[in-house]
Design brief:
Blueprint (H helix, E strand, L loop, with lengths): L4 H5 L7 H15 L9 H15 L2 H10 L12 H9 L26 H4 L21 E7 L1 H6 L1 E6 L5 E6 L8 E4 L15 E7 L5 E4 L2 E8 L1 H6 L1 E7 L2 E7 L8 E4 L14 E7 L7 H13 L9
Parallel strand pairs: 1-5, 7-11
Antiparallel strand pairs: 2-3, 4-5, 6-7, 8-9, 10-11
InterPro entries: DnaJ_C, DnaJ_domain, DnaJ_domain_CS, HSP40/DnaJ_pept-bd, J_dom_sf
Pfam families: DnaJ, DnaJ_C
Keywords: Chaperone
Length: 310
């Protein structure tokens, strides 16, 4: 007997799409063959992936809820309520073979009913009606983690899917957090030779030691010496696109953001993002005798009070 997909993922039949996704991610991390070397982990992982493939797609899930394990074989025009009524009436045949099925009505309100008519003529091979083909594979989703540099320049990557299958991915320059990359025909396999569904990769940015991305804008810290902030300066800063020059106005305080327009993530269809450099005034942890003398001299002549409310 085929396993119930809801039981495989450990969720109730009323589970939301978010609950199904969370359950899948938790199980996939535990049973992925790259992580779990138990002999039965791979089979368990494939079972989990199949369950998620079906339940993550709303239309495929609806058919599974309506028709159970045979949902891939039931032609698209069969109405779930009609199917349920036929089942309840004791119709004991499947969809295999040629022509209409041999129904065993077992009496009741449906005795004498022509179930070929009731089910919309889906078995009309003998009457010249249309024949339904196999059902297309379900679309699937997976997360694709990229670096800020990959998002800026574009890249080629090989991704290992939850099923263990590997696919080559082109990351276009200018992708943003949450964007979906479509790989046609790389989703769930169709039944009986039907085309496969599509695979959608959801872009997620990996944590970066220097950059933080918001939309297409890139935020970065800009360390400054006290005299650079006080007197003004032009300083170099690294960006994903290479080194850039930042003009620091005299009197720049810590926390001030200096904007470099167009130096954020590129936009293939419009205006690129900006790079925002946040000033952070740094002081030396150790001083030479001369540096200490100069700081002490500055302290004695300066009227600047950083704690003043003015």
């Amino acid at each position: 007997m085929a396993a119930d997909f809801y039981e495989v993922l450990g969720v109730p039949r009323s589970a939301s799409q978010e609950e199904i996704q969370r359950a899948y991610r938790k199980l996939a991390r535990s049973y992925h063959p790259d992580v779990n070397k138990d002999p039965g982990a791979e089979d368990r992982f494939k079972e989990i992936s199949e369950a998620y493939q079906v339940l993550s797609d709303p239309e495929t899930r609806r058919r599974y809820d309506a028709f159970g394990p045979d949902f891939r074989q039931v032609p698209p025009d069969v109405d779930p309520e009609t199917w349920a009524r036929a089942r309840a009436a004791g119709a004991g045949a499947g969809f295999g073979g040629r022509g209409a099925p041999a129904w065993d009505f077992g009496g009741g309100d449906f005795a004498g009913t022509d179930f070929e008519d009731l089910l919309g003529g889906i078995f009309a091979g003998r009457r010249g009606g249309r024949r339904w083909g196999p059902v297309r594979g379900a679309d699937q989703e997976a997360e694709l983690t990229v670096t800020v540099e990959d998002a800026y320049r574009g890249a080629r990557r090989t991704l290992t899917l939850p099923s263990g299958r590997r696919v080559d991915v082109t990351i276009p320059a200018g992708v943003t957090e949450g964007q979906r990359i479509r790989l046609a025909g790389q989703g769930g396999q169709g039944g009986d030779g039907a085309p496969a569904g599509d695979l959608y990769l959801i872009v997620r940015f990996a944590p970066h030691p220097r950059y933080k991305v918001q939309g297409r804008d890139i935020h970065v810290a800009l360390p400054l010496a006290p005299w650079e902030a006080a007197l003004g300066a032009t300083v170099a800063i690294d960006t994903p696109g290479g080194e850039a020059k930042v003009r620091v106005p005299a009197g720049t305080p810590s926390g001030r953001r200096l904007r470099l327009r167009g130096r954020g993530l590129p936009n293939p269809r419009g205006t690129p993002g900006d790079l925002l450099a946040e000033a952070r005034i740094m002081v030396p942890s150790e001083l030479t005798d001369e540096e200490r003398r100069l700081y002490e001299e500055l302290s004695s002549v300066s009227r600047f009070d950083p704690r003043s409310r003015r």
